[in-house]
Structure prediction request, 473 residues.
Amino acid sequence: MKQHRCVIGVLLALWISNAGLRASQEAKPPPPNIVFILADDLGFNQIGAYGDTPIQTPNLDQLAARGIRFTQAYSGNTVCSPSRVSLFTGRDSRLMDNNSNTVQLRDIDVTMAHVLKYAGYDTALFGKYSIGSQMGVTDPLAMGFDTWYGMYSILEGHRQYPHILWRDGQKVRIEANEANKKGAYAQELFTNEAIEYIKQERDQPFFVFLAFSSPHAELAAPNEFVAPYVDQFPDTAYSGMSTGTPADKYAWYYPEPVARPRATLAGMVTALDSYVGRIVRVLEEKGIADNTLLLFTSDNGPHDEGGGDPQFFRASAPYRGIKRDLFDGGIHVPMIAYWPHKIRTGRVDNTPWSFADVLPTFAELADVPLESVPRVKHNGISIVPLLSDMPGALPERTLYWEFGKQAGDPNSGIIGEVFQAARRGKWKAVRYGIEAPVTLYDLEADPGETTDLSASEPEIHREFVELLDEYKG
Prediction:
């Protein structure tokens, strides 16, 4: 009898142990698939969910209504390369040389794709890369991606109907665009590749980085997206180089004339919205949307190149400035998070955060301790506490940006200087040139950064001056 009770005790202990293990396993869901979609030069007010744009973006608006619409998210910088380096590495301008707008990844850098590989993710990049300096050394295959398809260099990223693209480091002819034909739109090609990748059967989670090269100039899109806008706006043709003399300061770079630049830009944004809708539908059809985190954002503020007219569309509203500015119009971006498993009720989140926070966020989602990853160097923080219906608070900290060469207002007279901006809480400081005065703004009361409070808030101003002096260069 005593032996019988002993056996029963052992079995009961095993059952309790196994039940506890099962409960632990059930309590810890598998890591999510991650789809990060990055637009190129899309302004804060060029998505319907963010303001009063006449541009139609129904798919993005629906994602914002069903997910989280972040209102205080920031890019890594005010042009694409340093912004993407920040995104890839989890570093803000304090840990980068931002005295050029062609900041590159280095072969020793650890990226968000590297980090996800530690958790067994399949990783893929589709679209514009433009932050590597040497094919085979800092191309996507060396930066943590298992496969990639798209544009390698910055210049390639400025053509919407390219003659070549790259697949895993090998050139791919786009014959549909040769001999002045426009048969294959780059953004649609990227979307098609991403969809085919998502459809594949796999046992491990995946990370898809879909980096559109639109609505960056050149201005071009399939007619099905442009035609609905042709009669909506007054429009002035962009002549490019067709007259034999530059039509504007960017004509040498964007030589193709555009008959209706405003309608075309609007069509480019609506095309992106359509492609995002296709991505969401394939996730739903495959039955994996519930535990897939989809993030949509832009690499910086809107451009005025090649016929672009951000003033007409109020593309940065309510913020001041555009691309190449460190006022909020150049760095304050739309950011939408969609993750049905964690976000069951659409909400708006006003927490300030930036691209440097993406890598540590992905690390936490994938359960990768960053201290275990060799050579990782970051100063972002995880925003996982925000990605739910019951968000937690992030610690207050200072966000920082630094930029030089072509930066800021072309009429400022200090092109080539190093420009700086920093935000802490509601306060933001901006300095256009190392020897220039530091201006101070209350973003809650004055999101357009119109009133300098440096004289009326001397103590806060002094703190920011000391901070910018410490960080500069």
